[in-house]
C-alpha cells in the first residue's frame, strides 16, 4: 500500500478496527495499522464481549483486554497511537455504534475463509458491517 492508496476516505479521519483475536483479525490489524500510519488517521480498536450471562464472561473480558493491549502495543511499535474500546452486547450493533460515535472514515474487518453455506447458516460480522455501515468498510482476507 502506498500513500495514494491510503488517501481520501481516511486521511486524517478516525479508523476503526474490529477484532475478535482470531488469525483473520491479525491480518486486518496489520492492514489497519499500516493504513492509519500512511493516512495520519487516529486508530480505534474495538473488541466486543457477548452480553450473555455466561459464567465465562469474565474470562471473555480478560481475553478482550489482553487482545486490545497486544494490538495497542503493535500499533505503538509502528508509531500509531491507538485507542482501545472493550464493549459488551451484540458485535453487529457495537461495531456500527462505535463507528458512528468516533465519526469513522472507515471500518477495517477481517474475514475468515468460511464457505457461502457457513455464512448463510451462521451469519458473518464482516458481511453485516458492509451492508449496514454508514462509512466505508475495508474487508481484509
Description:
The chain is of the alpha/beta class. The protein has one domain: Rossmann fold (3-Layer(aba) Sandwich). It is about 50% helix and about 25% strand. It has a 5-stranded parallel sheet with strand order 3-2-1-4-5, sandwiched between helices. Strand 1, helix 2 and strand 2 form a beta-alpha-beta unit. The mean pLDDT is about 85.
In short, what is this structure?
With about 140 residues, this protein is α/β, with parallel strands linked by helices. It is built from six helices and five strands, in the order αβαβαβαβααβ. Helix 3 (about 55-75) links the parallel strand 2 and strand 3.
Q: How many helical stretches?
A: 6
CATH class: Alpha Beta
Oligomeric description of these chains? single chain
The mean pLDDT is 86
> How are helices and strands ordered from N to C?
HEHEHEHEHHE
The proportion of strand residues reads 15-25%
Helix content: 40-55%
Beta-strand segment tally = 5
Number of domains: 1
For the sheet with most strands, the description reads:
5 strands, parallel
Query: Would you tell me which CATH topology applies?
Result: Rossmann fold
Report the span from N to C terminus: 15 Å
Going by helix content, strand content and strand pairing, the class is alpha/beta
**For this structure, what is the CATH homologous superfamily?**
HUPs
Q: If classified by CATH, what would the architecture be?
A: 3-Layer(aba) Sandwich
How is the largest sheet built, in terms of strand order? 3-2-1-4-5
Rough outline: globular
The low-confidence runs, each spanning 5 or more residues with pLDDT under 50, are: none
Radius of gyration: 15 Å
Amino acid at each position: 500500500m502506498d500513500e495514494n492508496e491510503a488517501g481520501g476516505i481516511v486521511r486524517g479521519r478516525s479508523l476503526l478496527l474490529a477484532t475478535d483475536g482470531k488469525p483473520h483479525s491479525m491480518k486486518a490489524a496489520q492492514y489497519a495499522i499500516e493504513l492509519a500510519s500512511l493516512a495520519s488517521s487516529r486508530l480505534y480498536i474495538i473488541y466486543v464481549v457477548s452480553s450473555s450471562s455466561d459464567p465465562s464472561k469474565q474470562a471473555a473480558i480478560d481475553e478482550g483486554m489482553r487482545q486490545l493491549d497486544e494490538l495497542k502495543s503493535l500499533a505503538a511499535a509502528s508509531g500509531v497511537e491507538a485507542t482501545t474500546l472493550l464493549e459488551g452486547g451484540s458485535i453487529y450493533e457495537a461495531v456500527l455504534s462505535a463507528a458512528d460515535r468516533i465519526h469513522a472514515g472507515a471500518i477495517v474487518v477481517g474475514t475468515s475463509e468460511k464457505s457461502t453455506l457457513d455464512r448463510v447458516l451462521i451469519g458473518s460480522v464482516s458481511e453485516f458491517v458492509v451492508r449496514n455501515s454508514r462509512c466505508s468498510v475495508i474487508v481484509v482476507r
